[in-house]
Amino acid sequence: MITVAGVVKRFGSVGVLDGIDFAAEAGEVVAVLGPSGCGKSTLLRLLAGFERPDAGEILVGGRPVGAPGPDRAMVDQSSTLFPWLRLRDNVAWAPRAAGAADPLAEADRLLEATGLSDFADALPATLSGGMRQRGAIAQVLATGAPVLLLDEPFGALDAQTRLAMHVWLRDILARTRPTVVLVTHDIDEALLLGDRLVVLSRRPARVAARVAVELGRDRGRHTTTDPVFTGLKDRILDLLTPA
Ligand SMILES: Nc1ncnc2c1ncn2[C@@H]1O[C@H](COP(=O)(O)OP(=O)(O)OP(=O)(O)O)[C@@H](O)[C@H]1O
Ligand SMILES: [Mg+2]
Q: Is residue 67 a contact partner of residue 233, using CB atoms and an 8 Å limit?
């Protein structure tokens, strides 16, 4: 579904990405970890089509990415909900723009599936940070885009809320099966949500490691004490800690 091959990106004289290769199968979650400032957000912006690589190639669904498109939807730390619309209308926005027969019914179905029905009539400003991020993800799922690009979607939340969000997102992704590239600083988040990890080095970033997360499908709070989890976490901490 996604192929990133030999991608190089510079901003002026600053080399950011120095030959990045990875792939994601349809329905897979690839988590990208790396030191602060190494180019993780730049990589997502390239996948989204907001930036162009200086060299290399990015294919989504077999086609080269040249510009933003309806096949890719992005969520980042700052919620993208329209502040003047109720949550239901925020989620109905994409189905409405796409000419769906009953956008509100589609929104209600998605709010139900994401456990947000009780907040359908709330304005974003009256929701907690965690709720707003869940709403932003529901809004993006409503686009039906087969590829989700998530840039530290829970980065602004406290640790307990974040853990609840991981369990929530895992459940939603298992049901909707988009292909996901998840950029995060949070190793626990990467291990709870990722099928595979791509660990980047410091800037100019190269792929320092590719790790298969063999923790089964049923992951939650209990997983963080699994020896496989703690072993992988140790290994990734070593990779990310400056020598
Ligand atoms: N549009 C731009 N113009 C110039 N430099 C940029 C631009 N976008 C990013 N950079 C630079 O590229 C480097 C990588 O930035 P990027 O935001 O991709 O890192 P990151 O890994 O996402 O960092 P963080 O972990 O802090 O979110 C930084 O040095 C940044 O200053
Ligand atoms: Mg970033």
A: no
Measure Cα distances from 145 to 74, 95, 138, 149 in Å.
Answer: 10, 11, 12, 10
138-156 pLDDT per residue, tens: 999 999 999 999 999 988 8
Is there a contact between 43 and 23 (Cβ–Cβ < 8 Å)?
Answer: no
Domains identified in the chain and CATH numbers: 2-71+147-240 (3.40.50.300), 82-144 (no CATH)
How is residue 98 written in tokens? 């796409």
Residue 100 to residues 92, 94, 136, Cα–Cα distance (Å): 9, 9, 20
pTM, full prediction: 0.93
Strand partners, 73: 148
Ligand 1 centroid–CA 179 distance in Å is 24
Atom 2 of ligand 1, nearest CA residue: 11
Which protein residue's CA is at the shortest distance from atom 31 of ligand 1?
A: 37
Order of strands across the sheet that contains 55-60: 14-24, 2-11, 55-60, 63-64
pLDDT digits (tens, 9 = 90+) for 71-83: 999 998 776 799 9
CB contact set of 134 (below 8 Å; sequence gap of 6+): 114, 115, 116, 165, 168
> What DSSP element (H or E) covers 17?
strand 14-24
- Strand 179-183 and strand 2-11: the pairing is unpaired
Contact 210, 235 (CB under 8 A): no
Contact between 59 and 2 (Cβ < 8 Å): yes
CA angle 177, 183, 187 (to 5 degrees): 100
Ligand lying nearest the CA atom of residue 16: 1
